[in-house]
Specification:
133 residues, Jelly Rolls, globular, 8 strands, eight-stranded antiparallel sheet
Amino acid sequence: RRVSSVLNRDVKQFGKQHLFDGSEETCWNSDQGTSQWVTLDFPRPVKVSQLHIQFQGGFSSRLCTLEGCRTGEELVKISELYPQDSHAMQISFPRMVMVEETVLDKLKITFGSSTDFFGRVVVYHLGVLGERL
């Protein structure tokens, strides 16, 4: 997994490891910027069916673009999501359409339009559900 940035480069307090640690106390906090992103490389191919994400209200994204690919291929756009500016866990976004046969080795989630004036994004939880192949 990789992220676009970390607030003040404070990886210990705001790093990418906090996206998946299951703690309500920790989060990934991006630095300022117009477009933030998270890239996930899976150890083996997966079919993604749902995305679970929990932002901090006021630091969410109005538009999330999902791109994916197989190893050695270029990223292609899969879907656009329109999350709420809320601290609640958001599961199965209403407009999320995953192509039934989309098999991925890499998934990139781009947070294109932050609700924060400076472009920061804060994510407490990120979960990708699907099937390992």
